[in-house]
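User: Last request for today: this protein with tryptophanyl-5'AMP, please.
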Amino acid sequence: METNNTEARKIILSGIQPSGKLTLGSYLGAIKNWVRLSDNYDCYFMMADMHAITVRQEPATLRKTVLEQIAEYIACGLDPDSCALFIQSQVPAHAELSWVLSCYTMFGELSRMTQFKDKSTKHTENINAGLFTYPALMAADILLYQADLVPVGDDQKQHVEICRDIAQRFNGVYGDTFKIPEPFIPKVGARIMSLQEPTMKMSKSDTTAGGCVYLLDSPDELMRAFKRAVTDSDTEIRYDPAEKPGVSNLMQIYSSVTDKSFPEIEAEFAGKGYGAFKSTVGEAVVETLRPIREKTEELFANKDYLAEIYRAGAQKAGYAANKTLRKVYKRVGFVQ
Ligand code: TYM
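Assistant: Here's the final one, the structure of the complex with tryptophanyl-5'AMP:
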């Protein structure tokens, strides 16, 4: 990706819901790529706390998770001096643009969203309007910053696509207002599966013991989860997600943390059993996450420093977001 100092740099926006602890999936599918891309873009990374309340959250836990998430973003390698790291609810333009965009978002397209269908099946007692209009808020998150690129895992692709549709619809009515963003989905690691049920996505809300591993898990917890990971009844280490979902998932994880290709991994483990394979993958994950865990613990202890970061982040984000919001308000005819 080129950097050209004479032209405005391209922009990245992404975020994660602080609805639970960050998982290995959120790291490999999203944050790892944010870090990789961050040198060459102007970056905005947020804690999507407004999205998190579409499912009931315990207030004290939400507060703690948001702070922990900022520490984790920095510990993963994002530089708070060059990236705006901010809390979504501290930039009111998100809620404001979201309302406008929800008036340009169709009931039919929202009804087709996989995440809405999944969550409304899981939380039948709380199918609230926010859960349904969630994609309009996510579109606001992205379009406020005129983002060129949105690095996400595979499961968020549909939300970036609806964001593009909403932006195109708005631009079609009022003239060029929003940049049309592209999703950035990694070739390896875009869909990390549960270690216990490898046909299901690894998710923050997974309650199956050992199915989900977290960024802050201890080396012992990680090794236990990898040693118990579900594989299959033969012994061959081969990439074949349809026939061998467990082994293929472990290969994805190993490839993502070591940068080895699938043929290299197959050659490395030819003739070796699943036991050795699972331990090696576990050890590679432990070594990747060890510095992240240690640095997060150190940063999390310094709440004043974290507050400085998110306040500065909200100021920088708010400045960019309000520019777009003012333009939108003018375009739709709100009195200035
Ligand atoms: P969320 O919080 O569910 O997930 C955060 C990011 O991690 C990726 N991810 C995964 N990638 C690979 N394998 C997995 N098992 C896995 N689990 C999660 C997700 O794809 C995502 O990139 N709606 C978003 C948050 C959001 C957002 C935004 C993202 C709010 N506004 C604007 C981008 C731009 C969400 O629920 O992600």
